[in-house]
Amino acid sequence: WYQRRVRARFKDMDPGRDIVTEGGHIFGYTAPGIQNLADDPIFGVGGDLAFNWGYSNNGCRIVLTGGYLSPADVNDDATRGLGNDFLIDPKRNTGSSVHAHEISNLQDCQRSRSCGSNVRVQGTDHGTGSSLKGGAVYGNYAIYVSDELKSFPTSGFLGTSVDGKC
């Protein structure tokens, strides 16, 4: 991991589909009483972290391998994660932003394309595509990378209080 910085990994879009961790996430934290974990694209699945998951004319910047990952040549609009877009060239990051959406929720229709005109996303930060349906924002997501950190900051960090070890 330390041999390539996060920025370099995000720029590596051709071929993309880069699985960047092994053994799952190192540390995950959810606030007590958090809701909607079952359809959260990060906390609702397990697996390793992957970047630039391009498939057909779609792409997703951050996914976990425990969720459904569309094959490279399948146009099923089905991979869910952070930083999503449909109708683009995922290897060049070019195309329309009409179907861009920051956080795409897990949905029962992932493998069948039956979502059709009802792709549920978090919040209103999405393109104008008629299939994108904004909804509640579940929380915040952050990715921290360190070669030396042995524990996650437990208090005072961005006004949070977290109890956990990496």
Q: What is the percentage of strand-forming residues? A: 15-25%
Write the H/E string, N to C. HEEEEEEEEEEE
Alpha plus pi helix count: 1
Sheet with the most strands, sense and barrel status: 5 strands, antiparallel
How would you explain this protein's 3D organization?
This protein is globular. It is mainly β. The model is unreliable at 161-166 (pLDDT under 50). The chain is built from 1 helix and 11 strands; from the N terminus they run H-E-E-E-E-E-E-E-E-E-E-E. The two termini are 16 Å apart. The strands form 4 sheets. Strands 1-2-3-4-7 form a 5-stranded antiparallel beta sheet, with no helix packed on it. A two-stranded antiparallel ribbon has the order 5-6. 4% of the residues lie in helices and 25% in strands.
Give keywords:
globular; 166 residues; disordered C terminus; mainly beta; 1 helix
Q: Topology, pairings included?
A:
Elements: H1 6-11, E1 18-19, E2 49-55, E3 58-64, E4 82-86, E5 88-89, E6 94-95, E7 101-103, E8 119-122, E9 132-135, E10 155-157, E11 160-161
Parallel strand pairs: 8-9
Antiparallel strand pairs: 1-2, 2-3, 3-4, 4-7, 5-6, 10-11
Task: Give the structure's gist in a few sentences.
With about 170 residues, the protein is mostly beta strands. About 5% of the residues lie in helices and about 25% in strands.
